[in-house]
Amino acid sequence: MRVAGIMSGTSLDGIDVAIVDIGARIRTVAYGTTPYTPSVRRAILAVSNRACHTADVSRLNFLLPELYAEALGKLCRTNGVDPASVELIGCHGQTIFHESEGGAVAGRRVASTLQIGDGSVLAERTGIAVVSDFRPRDMAAGGKGAPLVPFVDQLLFRHRTRRRVALNIGGIANITVLPAASEPGEVVAFDTGPGNMVMDQLVAQATQGRARFDRNGARAARGAPIAALLEQLLRDPYYAAPPPKTAGREQYGDAFLQRLLATGAPIDDLIASATAFTALTIVRGIRLIGADPAELIAAGGGVHNPRIMGLLAAYLPGVRVTTTDEFGIDPDAKEAIAFAILAHRTWRRKHGNLPSATGARHPVILGKISL
Fold first, then answer.
1. How far apart are CA 284 and CA 271, in angstroms?
2. Which helix (H) or strand (E) holds 268?
3. pLDDT of 263-315, one tens digit each?
4. From CA 156, how far away is CA 331, in angstroms rounded?
């Protein structure tokens, strides 16, 4: 079955689309990214864990699937893929709020999540069945709603004799711990803390928005990590808390940025500190659940930052640090591929969560189908 996976993550870089053939093996047919325009990015930021008007949320909920449909069409044209050959779309949508621990409302405490990008609009524009809104069912079953990609990590990277950790460094960093010959119930996965999000915000601040990320880790290389600041940040109880646990813009958004800027430290030192903080929290997460793995298999935009990858190798001596490229999976495409696979599971009425990763009471079929 040919399935398109569409992912737009917390970094707000743009729309990742992967077209994959799913059968006895998984084969990537095409992959591409369509950047968000500055105006769309600003609009999403304005409703992400912010006080805003419901009209803004509603309009973006209908605008984003238009952009998703355009991104899929562009990928098909660029790669000579017949759109009619795509039989299903898995669309994660854009997370604008995620509160897995729950919040008070009307005298009760409710855990909730919100991904915008309406599946019905996307189905109408493309003429293809869509699976969307993956996280709520897991949360309804008592889970955190994330991470969901570990189901795919276990499928793709489990090894008979080697303990592996699959790492994704997107806006948020998360790990999937795969014991040798692991069964699904033995897999542990959680968000370790920030991925690229804090670094990206600092670079945007330093350049007045002209740059959105630290290309090749150049600004971090010009600065020096601030030991006292790192020690203070690492005291947050989140990093020592046992999984399941999730993180997001709620923890590492504007308030966190302002906290760093308030130190008055040189901006390149802050970027160097944020880079080290990402690596340190990843390593702390790995060590939280036991011995170091034989291999760390990384994906996500952070693999292109040599400072992060170098720090991971330095902090994890004896661990082979590599990327999903080695396994035929483009590191930038992994999450889009994952949601194509999860959509395929839903279409076949099979569960797509790992309760050992999300904390759900039982496996569930994820998402809503728009025909």
1. 20
2. helix 267-288
3. 999 999 999 999 999 999 999 999 998 878 999 999 999 999 999 999 999 99
4. 13
